[in-house]
């Protein structure tokens, strides 16, 4: 081997020394494919001479490397027309791999899917994204292109497990870091309200760290998996779930007399509003809570109007108002101040100093996702005549460390959330 250094067979996961079944005392040393004849004319002459003078016998050996040997990228390169970009990366959700094939690759979608299933032992189903995610429940439109048509799966995020049907509910594994970041800001014993909770990636970890959680989603399928995940993670003693519109949910929590209609077309039981109030033991005058989350970035800002005048002043007299964490998309050219201005327009009043705008992730070249966190000002919470048609214009000053322009003097400044 030392002598033949540089000429021996060298391929990942394959040995170059083989035993011969009918010659137990001898071994085969495989040479590289570039050595193609028994005269060893492809080898440097001094090496060849030494080899031929030694006691080794040179023989021809056929080695077939089959489909099972080659990685997906190599196979797809050979199968797809020349010049096509080979799709080898995908996002996985449990046993499901999710690809986003370009139009030119659609005629080959099934064979691409099959190679990816064959070559990734943990993947059993391949789906391709179809169209954009514009529907109300933010569910991907997708098509199974290979493997089992089973979209029911389970994923893990930190200490929590989540069951979901990827074709029926929203799930994005890329938000794992953000779920953790926000939950890390909650303290055990605090009360957290998740207005668009999906299947529970904020609600379950918050409960696991000892928060008491009220979680809601309008999609009946999300509500179903939310309740499944609450039980799966054994936090059913501190998470309460419902299925209704986010505004109704917030109004019900703040004013248990509010008449609203939880959905009545669910698979399991869903209480009517009065039963919820009773079962959740909502106090007259409304629930005291520390945090509210609105993670529906496409339209969550529009929901902020619900906070205007929603709170009972008497009940919240000596209690700090909650922190609101509202997700939103913004164009690359938009500033933090633009985001704050939009929120203020929906809230109907100015925010106080101490707002935080956190960049969550780049979604597309001109689209980024942010989380705006702020403590609800009293003037807005108690609807003290602050609703204005126009957004305030000095939003820059509401950013952390800025000076407040329209600030209610009594407002406590938002410190660490
Ligand atoms: C972007 S997903 C976020 C889900 C979850 N918070 C997460 O981080 O994975 C938005 C969720 O809002 C729900 N939704 C849409 N419109 C709603 C509404 N009017 N009221 C309550 N939930 C709504 C959708 O069903 C979806 O589950």
UniProtKB/TrEMBL annotation:
<comment type="similarity">
    <text>Belongs to the class I-like SAM-binding methyltransferase superfamily. TRM5/TYW2 family.</text>
</comment>
<feature type="domain" description="SAM-dependent methyltransferase TRM5/TYW2-type">
    <location>
        <begin position="90"/>
        <end position="378"/>
    </location>
</feature>
<keyword id="KW-0949">S-adenosyl-L-methionine</keyword>
<protein>
    <recommendedName>
        <fullName>tRNA (guanine(37)-N1)-methyltransferase</fullName>
        <ecNumber>2.1.1.228</ecNumber>
    </recommendedName>
</protein>
<feature type="binding site">
    <location>
        <position position="295"/>
    </location>
    <ligand>
        <name>S-adenosyl-L-methionine</name>
    </ligand>
</feature>
<dbReference type="InterPro" id="IPR029063">
    <property type="entry name" value="SAM-dependent_MTases_sf"/>
</dbReference>
<feature type="binding site">
    <location>
        <position position="179"/>
    </location>
    <ligand>
        <name>S-adenosyl-L-methionine</name>
    </ligand>
</feature>
<feature type="compositionally biased region" description="Basic and acidic residues">
    <location>
        <begin position="395"/>
        <end position="411"/>
    </location>
</feature>
<keyword id="KW-0489">Methyltransferase</keyword>
<keyword id="KW-0539">Nucleus</keyword>
<dbReference type="InterPro" id="IPR025792">
    <property type="entry name" value="tRNA_Gua_MeTrfase_euk"/>
</dbReference>
<dbReference type="InterPro" id="IPR030382">
    <property type="entry name" value="MeTrfase_TRM5/TYW2"/>
</dbReference>
<dbReference type="InterPro" id="IPR056744">
    <property type="entry name" value="TRM5/TYW2-like_N"/>
</dbReference>
<dbReference type="InterPro" id="IPR056743">
    <property type="entry name" value="TRM5-TYW2-like_MTfase"/>
</dbReference>
<comment type="similarity">
    <text>Belongs to the TRM5 / TYW2 family.</text>
</comment>
<dbReference type="Pfam" id="PF02475">
    <property type="entry name" value="TRM5-TYW2_MTfase"/>
</dbReference>
<keyword id="KW-0496">Mitochondrion</keyword>
<feature type="binding site">
    <location>
        <begin position="217"/>
        <end position="218"/>
    </location>
    <ligand>
        <name>S-adenosyl-L-methionine</name>
    </ligand>
</feature>
<feature type="binding site">
    <location>
        <begin position="245"/>
        <end position="246"/>
    </location>
    <ligand>
        <name>S-adenosyl-L-methionine</name>
    </ligand>
</feature>
<keyword id="KW-0808">Transferase</keyword>
<keyword id="KW-0963">Cytoplasm</keyword>
<dbReference type="Pfam" id="PF25133">
    <property type="entry name" value="TYW2_N_2"/>
</dbReference>
<keyword id="KW-0819">tRNA processing</keyword>
<comment type="subunit">
    <text>Monomer.</text>
</comment>
<comment type="function">
    <text>Specifically methylates the N1 position of guanosine-37 in various cytoplasmic and mitochondrial tRNAs. Methylation is not dependent on the nature of the nucleoside 5' of the target nucleoside. This is the first step in the biosynthesis of wybutosine (yW), a modified base adjacent to the anticodon of tRNAs and required for accurate decoding.</text>
</comment>
<feature type="region of interest" description="Disordered">
    <location>
        <begin position="395"/>
        <end position="417"/>
    </location>
</feature>
């Amino acid at each position: 081997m030392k002598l033949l250094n540089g000429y021996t067979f060298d391929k990942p996961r394959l040995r170059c020394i083989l035993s011969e079944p009918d010659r137990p005392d001898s071994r085969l040393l495989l040479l590289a494919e570039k050595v193609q004849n028994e005269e060893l004319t492809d080898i440097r002459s001094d090496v060849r001479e030494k080899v031929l003078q030694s006691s080794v016998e040179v023989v021809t050996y056929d080695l077939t490397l089959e489909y099972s040997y080659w990685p997906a990228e190599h196979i797809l390169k050979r199968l797809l027309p020349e010049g096509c970009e080979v799709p080898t990366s995908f996002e996985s959700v449990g046993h499901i791999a999710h690809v986003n094939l370009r139009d030119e690759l659609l005629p080959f979608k099934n064979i691409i899917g099959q190679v990816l299933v064959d070559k990734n032992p943990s993947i059993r189903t391949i789906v391709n994204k179809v169209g954009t995610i514009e529907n109300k429940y933010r569910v991907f439109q997708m098509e199974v292109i290979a493997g089992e048509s089973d979209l029911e799966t389970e994923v893990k995020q930190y200490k929590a497990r989540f069951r979901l049907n990827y074709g029926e509910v929203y799930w994005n594994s890329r938000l794992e870091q953000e779920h953790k970041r926000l939950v890390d800001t909650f303290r055990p014993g605090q009360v957290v309200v998740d207005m668009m909770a999906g299947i529970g990636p904020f609600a379950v970890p918050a409960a696991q760290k000892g928060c008491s959680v009220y979680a809601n989603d309008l999609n009946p399928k999300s509500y179903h998996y939310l309740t499944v995940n609450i039980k799966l993670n054994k936090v059913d003693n501190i998470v309460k779930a419902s299925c209704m519109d986010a505004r109704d949910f917030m109004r019900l929590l703040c004013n248990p007399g509010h008449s609203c209609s939880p959905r009545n077309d669910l698979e399991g039981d869903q209480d009517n509003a009065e039963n919820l109030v009773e079962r959740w033991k909502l106090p007259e005058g409304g629930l005291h809570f520390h945090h509210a989350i609105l993670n529906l970035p496409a339209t969550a800002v529009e929901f902020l109007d619900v906070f205007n005048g929603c709170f009972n002043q008497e009940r919240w007299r000596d209690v700090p108002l909650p922190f609101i964490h509202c997700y939103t998309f913004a164009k690359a050219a938009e500033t933090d101040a633009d985001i704050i201005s939009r929120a203020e327009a929906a809230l109907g009043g100015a925010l106080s100093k101490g707002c935080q705008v956190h960049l969550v992730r780049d979604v597309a070249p001109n689209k980024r996702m942010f989380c705006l966190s702020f403590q609800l000002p009293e003037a807005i919470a108690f609807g003290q005549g602050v609703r204005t048609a126009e957004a305030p214009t000095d939003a820059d000053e509401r950013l952390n460390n800025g000076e407040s322009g329209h600030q209610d003097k009594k407002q406590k400044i938002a410190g660490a959330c």
